[in-house]
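Tokens as discussed.
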């Protein structure tokens, strides 16, 4: 049974349906569908123009769920939270030369699609850690790292969220990974660290012990975390948040208390943690709760969500 409980949410400026179609056409193993709409009435003034419009669009990439939030221009993704796409030949037929060629060709097609209207952060080419890799921010500002993976290595999901820690959170990638896995230690399948590779020598703002690359697992979900080796000047924003569906109010209360570190950022289930990462802590039956009369309006008045107040 899948234990994927953390769903990355991407804030899209009024174009979530178009973005969903774009990703379904651009990424392998991907489909998208509009899953919810704004109420026709009872919206706050700043959302009045969204009455009846799509609210969320579900994008499923090789079994990994992303949610596009159709909203205004308040937030925008940054490279601090990107998505790594592992083009492993095993996903394209095996470990032989034909499968490797198929994986590389699929990567090239995806790269070309994501670059259309986007901007390249790292050119597609050979690097010490991969024979074929590139980093691009697409037309919606979402960041993607495309990597041709060695089939002899440990198998990882096709899509893996990647968190880059800098600024006030510089050199805290390992600490953050340990903190997050501790919060979900009782999830089926357990949680814990994967491979970790420190820089070894001071690199920009990163110390020798900071992580050039690290990974951690929550249930059957993998995440990448690393510390910035250069002062890029960006950090985490609400443009990409991590949504957790909770079984009951007790779990909402526990995770909210553990994660929330900035009272000013608390709003209708959203919070910001000690590292600057934005989370949404919501009931697993939120869609059903929102079908109650005036439920959306009630939710908009809450900070931590209280199930009995919907």
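Sequence:
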């Amino acid at each position: 049974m899948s234990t994927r409980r953390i769903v990355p949410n991407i804030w899209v400026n009024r174009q979530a349906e178009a973005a969903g179609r774009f990703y379904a056409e651009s990424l392998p193993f991907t489909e998208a569908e509009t899953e919810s709409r704004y109420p026709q009435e009872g919206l706050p003034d700043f959302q009045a123009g969204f009455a009846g419009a799509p609210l969320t669009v579900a994008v499923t990439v090789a079994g990994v769920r992303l949610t596009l939030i159709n909203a205004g221009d308040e937030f925008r993704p940054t490279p601090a939270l990107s998505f790594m796409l592992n083009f492993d030949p095993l996903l394209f037929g095996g470990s032989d030369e034909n499968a490797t060629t198929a994986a590389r060709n699929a990567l090239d097609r995806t790269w070309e699609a994501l670059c259309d209207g986007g901007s390249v952060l790292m050119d597609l080419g050979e690097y010490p850690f991969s024979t074929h890799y590139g980093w691009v921010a697409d037309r919606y500002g979402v960041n993607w790292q495309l990597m041709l993976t060695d089939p002899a290595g440990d198998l990882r999901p096709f899509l893996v969220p990647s968190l880059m820690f800098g600024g006030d959170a510089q050199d805290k990638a390992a600490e953050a990974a340990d903190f997050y896995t501790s919060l979900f230690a009782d999830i089926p399948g357990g949680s814990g660290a994967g491979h970790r590779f420190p820089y070894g020598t001071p690199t920009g703002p990163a110390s020798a012990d900071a992580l050039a690359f690290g990974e951690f697992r929550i249930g059957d979900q993998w995440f990448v975390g690393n510390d910035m080796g250069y002062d890029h000047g960006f950090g985490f924003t609400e443009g990409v948040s991590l949504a957790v569906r909770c079984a009951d109010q007790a779990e909402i209360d526990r995770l909210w208390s553990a994660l929330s570190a900035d009272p000013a950022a608390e709003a209708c289930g959203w919070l910001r943690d000690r590292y600057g990462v934005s989370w949404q802590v919501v009931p697993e039956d939120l869609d059903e709760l929102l079908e109650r009369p005036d439920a959306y309006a009630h939710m908009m008045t809450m900070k931590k969500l209280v199930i009995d107040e919907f």
